[in-house]
Design goal:
The protein has 274 residues and is an alpha/beta fold. It has 10 helices and 10 strands. 45% of the residues are buried.
């Protein structure tokens, strides 16, 4: 696959983590990509971080902001998608560090008719604080350092950092939407357009990713595992407010029991805004 890749990074008022993520993207071995920062209403400090990196990198870096009106991740992603120019989009949360071969690995796995769902390791609160405080490039740590972190409890597992050529085993869960996480996925733009992107009817934390995967698979797109190839390093954060979860659970149940493919409030709703 030789097309331009767009990396969509979503953030909200966490400038230190965003700075670290953009640093990790600046160190990619594959340079044929752009980055769109989808901002769910952060203050001016986030814009300053993006502006600082715009002067440092050779690839296109854009900041797409929407006003702060609660947790609106789905709409934030849609706004970033509309600003993207790539034929293939990677979605990465702004608390997930990408190792140097992250974009290259996603490019190798890209295949028409499939989306790629990657995995992650979770850092502890103490390990995260140290990395951000000291500006440590954890995405470049050697295996010995990760083993040391595992032994002291700084990470939850090592497996997501391994590299294995799984070949056809990556297609074993072709029709399984459960377990896929929006913090590390790659999708063809044409497939996003077919389902009208993420559904902004999901507000507050929870289940917007599940809705997205169900509709994507219902449209004929299958899942390929990015495990042992595209793993990211997830910085610790406090648990999000889950007050909206019951309502989002009900929305998801409706989706599971109908045949809808397109989002109720998707890309088209934004593209028609005056």
């Amino acid at each position: 696959m030789t097309e331009l890749i767009s990396v969509i990074v979503t953030t909200y008022n966490r400038e230190d983590a965003l700075d670290a993520v953009l640093r990790s993207l600046a160190g990619q071995t594959d340079r044929h990509f752009e980055v769109i920062v989808g901002d769910d209403g952060s203050g001016p400090a986030t814009a300053k971080v993006v502006a600082a990196w715009q002067s440092k990198v050779s690839w296109r870096l854009e900041h797409v902001w929407q006003k702060d009106d609660g947790f609106r991740l789905a709409e934030c992603r849609n706004r970033a998608i509309l600003a993207a120019r790539g034929a293939y989009l990677i979605f990465l949360d702004a608390d997930c560090l990408a190792r140097p071969d992250f974009v290259a690995a996603h490019r190798r796995l890209a295949e028409r008719g499939w989306f790629v769902a990657g995995n992650r390791i979770l850092l502890s609160a103490d390990a995260t604080a140290a990395i951000l405080r000291d500006g440590q490039a954890a995405e470049r740590w050697p295996a010995t350092r990760w083993i040391s972190e595992r032994l002291r409890g700084g990470i939850n597992r090592l497996s997501a950092l391994l590299r294995l050529p799984l070949g056809p085993l990556r297609r074993l869960r072709a029709k399984a939407w459960r377990g896929a996480r929006g913090c590390n996925i790659a999708v063809w733009r044409a497939d996003l357009d077919r389902i009208d992107g993420f559904d902004a009817a999901f507000v507050g934390w929870g289940r917007e990713d599940s809705d997205f995967f169900i509709r994507l698979m219902r449209s004929g797109v299958r899942r390929k595992d990015g495990n042992f190839a595209t793993g990211v390093i997830h910085l610790w954060h406090a648990e999000a407010n889950r007050a909206a979860l019951p309502d989002n659970e009900r929305r998801l149940e409706e989706v599971k029991h109908n045949d809808r493919i397109r989002a109720r409030q998707g890309l088209s709703a934004l593209s028609t805004e005056s």
